[in-house]
Design a protein that fits this description.
The chain has helices at about 5-15, 20-30, 45-65, 70-90, 230-235, 250-260, 285-295; strands at about 100-105, 110-115, 120, 125-130, 140-150, 160, 165-170, 175-180, 185-190, 195-200, 200-210, 210-215, 220-225, 240-245, 260-265, 275-280, 300-305, 305-310. It is an alpha+beta fold. α3 (about 45-65) crosses α4 (about 70-90). The protein is globular.
Length: about 300
Amino acid sequence: MNDENRLDEIIARYLTGVSTPEESAFIEHWFRHNGNINKPDIELSQVDKRRMLKKMHAEMEERTQKKAPFVWYAAALLTGLLLGGWGISYLLSPAPNVYTTIHTGIGEVRHTWLPDSTEIWINANTTLRYHPDFSHHRDVLLIGEALFSVKQDEEHEFLVTTPDSVSTLVLGTRFNIGSYTTEHHTTISVLSGKVKIEKTGTQLGTLTARQSLVFRQNDQTFTRSMIADTASAMGWTNGSWVYENIDAAELARLLYNQYGITLNNKTGRSLQLKTGINFNHHQSAAEIAEIFCVLANCQYRMVDEKLFELY
């Protein structure tokens, strides 16, 4: 990965609140030394520029009592270099820009509504953050998985951004997004309506009902496909997990998010089923691991109650 792509990745992680302390320190140092995110080789979109200013504004609110002057300098730099008059008016807005956070624990699925009456189901081990002035700024940051039934509002777009800086823009629709950081890909599935998808200024396309897109972080590529069964795509909301050709990495994510169990693949080979399979929350983690191993021609052992190994 070249320096520009690495910087773009760190910025995306910083914007969505998942950067490490070292990465945050790097971004702050970069701003102090006149970092310019308007360079052609970085190519941040207007959406990302707006999110960057919001992030810095949130940092200001949080650090005012700590007297961190660099934050004010960075915000001024962003305002002057990137956003002009709009940035100044936003920066001087009296409303504090502190995102509201919803977090689900291991095995927890939550059904709730956003302030604009958008209905959401939030999957286990997921963090969702949304703008405090949601009636005017329908911006959502998602780390994990959620199913959205968006309240239509033609005057205010609804934007969901994931840690890999993939942005999904809608007016009114029903769609599912899965973007766990351990999986290194983001999946957007549209059940009804239409969404537009962007990655750091690049349009990935428009999805309509029964269409899906998978963006892979490792090679920055994406594929589109049709959804055979929309009920299966949202099955996790009632504790049914439907997979097509599940591999060991997906199994590990399922066991950790739903049962708090870490799964290590010690077989030395890539394990992937060649068929569809349906698990559910009535099964134990051991039962799920055993079924997978029967079909994948491997075995598993419980090292302890929180650690399984495939061998």
